[in-house]
Amino acid sequence: MNEKVNENSWIPLMVVACATFIIAVDTSFMNVSISQISAI
Question: From CA 32, how far away is CA 26, in angstroms rounded?
């Protein structure tokens, strides 16, 4: 149980977290823009 944690083991987690954030922001922007385009 005394395994040394690799210092770079957090990088994949950060990549997944950033990708999830970008997808969420993109989805919210697309929902707003599609509703604005359809209102025209």
Answer: 10
d(CA 20, CA 28): 12
Q: How far apart are CA 7 and CA 32, in angstroms?
A: 40
* Single-letter amino acid, residue 2: N
pTM of the model: 0.67
- DSSP string for residues in 4-34: PPPTTTTHHHHHHHHHHHHHHHHHHHHHHHH
Q: From first to last of the 40 residues of the chain, give the pLDDT tens digit.
A: 566 767 788 899 999 999 999 999 999 999 888 888 887 7
